[in-house]
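hi! just following up on the protien thing from before. the input was this:
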Amino acid sequence: MVTALQKSIAATSLGGTVMEKLYAISAAGLRRVTLTDSELLLDELSPANLAELLRELGISVSMFRVHGLFGPSAGGSKLVLERVQRKFELMGTLGASVMQVSVPREQAEDDRRAATASQLAILADLARDHDYRVAIDVSDAAPDFPTLRRAANIIRLANRNNLGLVVSNFEFLVSDSTLDDIAQLPPQSIYMALLTDVRTIGDKVSRASRQLRCFPGQGVLDLSSFIVRVLESGYDGPFVLDVPNDDLRASPARLTAMDAMRSLRYVEEQVWRAGKKSAPSISEDIGLAPTPECTKIEFIEFAVSGAEQLRMEGWLGALGFTQAGRHRSKAVTLYRQGEVAIILNAGSDTFAHYYHHLHGLSVCALGIKVDDVQSMLNRADRFAYKRYKERTGPHEYQMPAVRAPDGSLFHLLDDRYDPALDFEMTGVAATLPAEIVRVDHIVRAVPPGQIDSWILFYRALLGLESDEPVDFDDLHGTVRSRAAHDRSNRVRLPLTSSGSDRTVVARSLSAFAGAGVSQIAFATEDVFVTVENLRRAGIPFLRIPAGYYDEIRDERGVPPELVDRMRALDVLYDADSAGGRFLHAYTEMFESRLFFEIVQRTGGYQRYGETNSPVRMAAQAAPRTASGAFAAQQAAIR
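and the predicted 3d structure came back as:
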């Protein structure tokens, strides 16, 4: 019995030479690939050498795509049979048995369908001589065009038992085809099934929407229904990732191939969890690990060194944090306020020490409380995310971790976690009133094209849900944001990225020499009281342009008395359609690396105040001159 989905990937989903792609595919554990004649024409490998490499790596060619078999003619397009024999010879060398041919849309119209079927019948007869099959799809799908039904009618007319169809879930998004059409197909007529996802659904989605496509699990589509319909039709072949996205092609092939494998395993799991385990190709033997619940951000750990540690301690003190403990065996200090714990790690021969060498002062790890640590570690193994175990002393809490896509750590904690196991606690923090009560969200800036990898990490490993991406304007370019969160919204982890090298996000990436936490938002019960107290302690808050307050009073109907309070403390405002409200204020940048945010949510508001992001980024771009006793004290620590 087949115990899992058969998995394949189109080589065009990866960047690099054919050799680089195949090595990456093999390293990721994939054993099937779809190749295209056009990419082979541009490669140095001869067909014989390519075939030898495929055998060496244990990779089979699940399908061979041929372009240009339909050429222009007086009546529209015509199959160029003169090229077919050369393609068959190439398929024989590579060990491929299925040829994909795209039929131009005009050739699938009613008045040309019979002629197209006749030409494809000739092609199928020639393929039969080599024991090959021919799979067709109709290109240039449109919302008013039932692509799958037209293609099925063509193969019915051709009436050849080695002529079938390529089906793609993407076609059901951009054409007039429906999943019910699959049940109406001729028996055993699906020769290949393609999978893709999209980051958002809307008017922008079309067949040409390359940049909206992504791997399954990184977007918004539910692919399980499509997969089950295909399996129920009797299909027993591979599911091919077909994602012609320029971001993927620009990324290192090995990283992309690993995400491809993770994506296919994620889809496999979703089919099972959706109650489709009776599908012929899915069984319990695929090694599913339960998805634990993430319940809390337990701590935020900074890698620090020297004078920057003293400056960070100054900021934490002004923010209201107090030193709560010192590590028993390492140069690590714990600060607390409310439910928030921040760790400053200046230890030598630690993960933080080496992370600091690469990235400077930065968040090197997060402590996430989960309800089942072992299940989370099993999931890390299944999805090929690397485990990490820090050296610990006697009687210290064993804190397993998983490496995130940027190399930082996510420590996995259970209910037994107690900082007193590792720290000599002072007890001071518990006696002081808390202005800040909990971590609201943590924003990570990532390089262009990497948001999708993080979304897959958050979904596949941590079981988080994700929102659709949001784009907003910086003074120097567009910034994209996408948030992930648990079902109860206790763990919120937005991501930001920008293709421009001058935006606020890009400057953070430059400071960190890669991805890094660029924003930490703390929740409070009264934003006005908290911000006023923090200002008095010397925390510099971002100055918001006066025009912003005039706009929200005049255009959004915010009461004048509330606007006046906000203006006095540089607090910003957002609201949702259900009456939820979000009040928030930003600090100035710390060390040109990250900033803090103080937020107050009321009425069930669940977003992040994205409508104010352009205002915030414009204010951050403006030149600032620090002043006051706190600024002077910080400047003296060098």
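Confidence is low (pLDDT under 50) at residues 280-285.
The first strand starts at residue 7 and ends at 10.
cheers
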